[in-house]
Please model this.
Amino acid sequence: MERTEDLTILDLPDILAAFWNCPTEKGIMAQVVSLHEDHPCLAEDGVTLSCRIFRGFPEEPFVLFFPAEYDTDSDVIFLAGLLCQFGMTVASQSYRGCGKSNGTAGFSPLFSDAEVIFQEILQKRDEMGCTGPLVLMGRSIGAAIALDLAARHQESTLCLVLESAFDRTDDFLAGKGLDVDALGLRGRDPFCNRTKMLRYKNPVLFLHSSRDPVVSITQVEWLVCESRSKATQFQIVPSPDRESLARSTGEFYANAVKDFIHLRMGRRPPRKQRHDRTDKTLI
Model:
């Protein structure tokens, strides 16, 4: 797939500070989940990247997750806990310069690093004996990375889950409080999310907060409209903000993701029992 622009235009000090200068939480085990391991991978330029794997059951879905710029260790662990309760295996990349990954944080290597992680995960799934389908999932900036991978590897993935995704790059940056006019980025769209969505034929689940101050529901609807699959779903999540969809709506969020993936596997949720509402007169 051809790209109209390169992500190097986003490697500006103001933008990098807005995305990678957020506080981190290291070693916080907010919730007990299945056995996990840190799997190192070598990027194209020799930088060591880390991918954390939370083991589930081999016959259940394998979810490769790309976190948001605001996610911490505890956020990733919390998400893994929500999905591992259904037996799913969850793998999450640490971007370079973050967590246990080496190198310097930036936009330029995001897509190439994700490709390395993807290929490593395909091999790791075989080594683990996993037979369940591969699902790509991303949150905020991670949604754009997951979409880029999905558009390139449709035959290898069952479906795509995008949380707090965005349509146009300049609108997304403006929503983050950046002056795109001063930065010379007005009208420039290096992520090309719409174009990639047009080319992705598999089902997509969109999860979006009704109170997202960065990307409005109207903005993300433009991206939803580009999906080619009739099985695509758009779920508005009643969370108080953009950053806490999973934490604030835990069971609702987990079941929405689980039900969507299971339907793609041909598993239908059990029918709810009908209650007899006929009024009975006591004699």
Notes: The chain is about 35% helix and 15% strand.
